[in-house]
């Protein structure tokens, strides 16, 4: 059973989530902007290679950002939920003070 309790320790994880969302939007805008700038100047075979490289770059950025979200952004919240479920009071106090 998962408990949702507001405390100061979880405020940091909320800030990390908001920052992660802002970075994702910025990264998407930059990739689309770069894609459009090259798209207007290239033709034929060069255009297909360019679109492939932009697609590959987008996929790699997506994979890296998912890794960061899972291992950095959501890590503290998952630890807090596990501590509540198992009853680790020392860990709860440590996260509340953090």
Q: Would you spell out the secondary-structure blueprint of this structure?
A:
Blueprint: H1 8-39, H2 44-73, H3 75-86, H4 89-97
Transmembrane segments: 20-41, 47-68
Keywords: Membrane, Transmembrane, Transmembrane helix
Q: What is the residue-averaged pLDDT? A: 78
Which bin fits the share of residues in helices? over 70%
Count every helix, treating DSSP H or I runs of 4 or more residues as helices: 4
Integer tally of domains: 1
The helix/strand series, from N terminus to C terminus, equals HHHH
Keywords: Membrane, Transmembrane, Transmembrane helix
Transmembrane segments: 20-41, 47-68
Structure description:
Keywords: Membrane, Transmembrane, Transmembrane helix. With 98 residues, the protein is an all-alpha fold. It has one domain. The protein is 85% helix and 0% strand. It contains 4 helices and no strands. Helix 1 packs antiparallel against helix 2 and helix 3 packs antiparallel against helix 4. The chain is elongated and about 65 Å long. The protein starts with 7 loop residues before the first helix and ends with a helix. The relative contact order is 0.16.
List keywords for this structure.
98 residues, mainly alpha, 4 helices, 0% strand
Short description:
Keywords: Membrane, Transmembrane, Transmembrane helix. The protein is mainly α and 98 residues long.
